[in-house]
């Protein structure tokens, strides 16, 4: 689990691709070019996913990028390499919305609602990316499970956040970890159900989950004699920043 918790750092910033210079100006320029091209192809793959579904082929990605397959393979060793890059991009998209929501200086219920809406907003906009990463047939490394890893990251961060608040209210923080994993599992399972069924609007499913999560928190707090106004910001705004590991895989040197 240490590899996961290393990515959850308070106050940490996500490193940017190309920051590690080699001292060789020509080599650094070429490295930045490869990183930029690889990123362009990942965006093309996202477009291909929207058009072709989670069972897309490398040919689909090449067409979306306007290049031939050999050019694509200069930047990705194989489909598994592209899968990892798509997973990293998916994590970036999710965390770019989820982190500000989790750390918003809002009252408890609006804060919960905002975080849930961030998650559902991403899977609504990129449903095929989520399907690909969760259970698609696209070739992937044996040990790669981006959705499970992100779930672990978010649960670890949420555990720290809940633990901070529980200690602030002089409550036993031992419940923070099972609370966090229970919440994250419920949200993920509900998200998968919603993507397939769409039997209600995004606003409705977010509101239902908001009320369920708040009812659980409020109930346990009241059992300990702690009463929190759901519509007033807490005196101290505890935050935890999630940092996704940067993509250091640049593919093969392109000619």
UniProtKB/TrEMBL annotation:
Annotated GO MF terms: DNA-binding transcription factor activity; transcription cis-regulatory region binding
Key words, A-Z: DNA-binding
Pfam family, one: TetR_N
Keyword Chloroplast among UniProt keywords: no
DNA-binding region coordinates: 57-76
SUPFAM superfamilies in the cross-refs: Homeodomain-like, Tetracyclin repressor-like, C-terminal domain
Ranges for region Disordered: 1-28
Residue stretches making up the HTH tetR-type domain: 35-94
Protein name: TetR/AcrR family transcriptional regulator
Species: Amycolatopsis acidicola
């Amino acid at each position: 689990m240490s590899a996961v918790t290393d990515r959850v750092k308070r106050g940490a910033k996500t490193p940017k691709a190309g920051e590690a210079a080699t001292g060789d100006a020509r080599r650094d320029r070429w490295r930045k070019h490869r990183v930029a091209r690889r990123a362009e192809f990942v965006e093309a793959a996202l477009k291909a996913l929207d058009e072709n579904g989670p069972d897309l082929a490398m040919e689909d990605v090449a067409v979306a990028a306007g290049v031939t397959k050999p050019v694509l393979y200069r930047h990705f060793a194989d489909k598994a390499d592209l899968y990892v890059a798509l997973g990293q991009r998916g994590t970036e998209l999710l965390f770019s919305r989820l982190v500000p929501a989790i750390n918003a200086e809002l009252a408890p219920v609006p804060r919960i609602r905002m975080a849930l809406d961030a998650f559902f907003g991403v899977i609504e906009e990129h449903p095929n990316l989520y399907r690909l990463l969760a259970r698609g047939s696209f070739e992937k490394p044996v040990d790669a499970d981006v959705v499970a890893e992100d779930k672990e990251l978010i649960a670890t961060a949420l555990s720290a956040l809940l633990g901070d608040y529980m200690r602030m209210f002089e409550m036993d923080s031992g419940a923070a970890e099972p609370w966090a994993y229970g919440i994250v599992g419920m949200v993920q399972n509900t998200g998968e159900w919603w993507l397939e069924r769409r039997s209600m609007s995004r606003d409705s499913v977010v509101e239902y989950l908001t009320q369920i999560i708040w009812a659980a928190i409020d109930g346990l707090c009241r059992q300990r004699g702690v009463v929190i106004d759901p519509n007033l910001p807490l005196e101290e705004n505890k935050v935890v920043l999630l940092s996704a590991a940067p993509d250091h895989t640049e593919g093969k040197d392109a000619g």
